[in-house]
Design goal:
Oligomer: homodimer
Strand order of the largest sheet of chain A: 1-8-3-6
Strand content of chain A: 15-25%
Largest interface: A-B, 52 and 52 residues
Shape of chain A: globular
Distance between the termini of chain A: 49 Å
Largest sheet of chain A: 4 strands, antiparallel
Chain lengths: ~260, ~260
Amino acid sequence: MQATALAAARSSSLFSGLTEQEKDKLLAAGHVYKLEKKEYLFRHGDPVKNFYLVCSGTIQIFRETPDGHEKTDEILIAGHSIGEREIVQNAKTRQFNAMAVEDTLLLEFSAVWLKESAKANPVFALNLLSAIARYAEETAIELEHQTTMSATQMVACFLQRLCVLYDFDPSGFTLPYSKTLIASRLGMELETFSRTLAKLKPHGISVEGTRVVFTNLPQIEAYVCGECSIAEDCSTHRVLQGKLLCIEKKSCGGQCK
Amino acid sequence: MQATALAAARSSSLFSGLTEQEKDKLLAAGHVYKLEKKEYLFRHGDPVKNFYLVCSGTIQIFRETPDGHEKTDEILIAGHSIGEREIVQNAKTRQFNAMAVEDTLLLEFSAVWLKESAKANPVFALNLLSAIARYAEETAIELEHQTTMSATQMVACFLQRLCVLYDFDPSGFTLPYSKTLIASRLGMELETFSRTLAKLKPHGISVEGTRVVFTNLPQIEAYVCGECSIAEDCSTHRVLQGKLLCIEKKSCGGQCK
DNA sequence: CGACACTTTGAAGACGATCAACGCCGGTGG
DNA sequence: CCACCGGCGTTGATCGTCTTCAAAGTGTCG
């Protein structure tokens, strides 16, 4: 169990470019931390004491609005890290909640450890910087999507990304978490999400229950980077892995075939 | 002229904690760069070669969607920096446009200079890390606002922030840039923005032409951090300077008096 | 089998975008 | 000095999309 946990942790981008010895030394400071489904890792307002690496399972990062609604900011899986931004900024309290979506294994490190390690190891520091910069970039893209894309486009975009990120088979895979969670992640209501799925069929994305099938693969592929004539400039449709998706004429101005 | 430019630049948070000598040494590598109103600093797709510090004037960072719409990501004034994220991430091309809103003075540095300086000076490196982390945090809040607040709330929030950020007099100040730009920044149409302003009057915010007056100051003040009963947990209404604004009952659930 | 969580579907409503027309102002040129 | 123009902002009417509220359907697990 411990061995598997470490394997996932050492594959984190934070350790890229480090020797196996260096990784061992850094990881030695971590304690295994288990969470059961629905258990909280921490809540909004808790003091920032620790840094975490996800080894297995899934962690949901979310905020609660005063009227009781939840907005999911991130869904983290093995290899992802939690808390580096707050620690770097010396934030005193957590600004969001972290909860296990399913049984989850983490490695726990102290905030001090993170800072010391960054000071002591320039490669690690650069990885940290890069991870935070990447998060900033992803959030900015997310924001752009939110303000310029329709719900249909967002869902299509999300499913494509999901497929790439989790290395699923496009010709058929199962959603890794509930539709409620996905809707919350996309900042829309469950009902809207549910209705949207039906609209995707004509575009070659079929969803029934938790089963997703990219039918008419060539058509879908055609939407992917390289075949989209405005790929370079199509910032609206840029997806994190450098792939593109233009699902509706509306915001493509018909330039994407 | 040069003296003023340097004064604004050295006040940047990137140099906090450095001795005057260190600042001098770092700033010596910069070249003054002038932009006239409407002139581009760079465009989407341009190679990432330089890092900039804004000394005076205003720079608009924006993206163009394929259907011709513009979304303004940031409005930068003296002390702000441009390009650190792309450089840290080794991005090859700019992912957005940067244009002068008015005549603007900048300091230009090479991308290499930024990296070398970060390597050579740990305090500078930490400031850089902190600046990027702060940007990430601000963007995340922005995203949360976008998905949970109404147009009315966003505008009210923006005006309050503007007042704090620019150190304006709440009892009366002039908008520092056009309403078109503000609307674009808030991700809404000019018409929506225009209509929204009228709705703010009952809440103690009066806008006529470019003149903004926070009337009924006590009422407004009451909305500000400390007097809002759910201040600590009211992430939706958290504003960058640690101030709060709850302008409508809708999402406060009546908890904010 | 029943309880419960999760999802789907329907109908109504709110909100912001869109299209269109008009007013205002500063600048330019005759 | 006046007429015209273009940029900017306001206002009105309409439309589409997403949310909201309500009810019913599906699946799983004890």
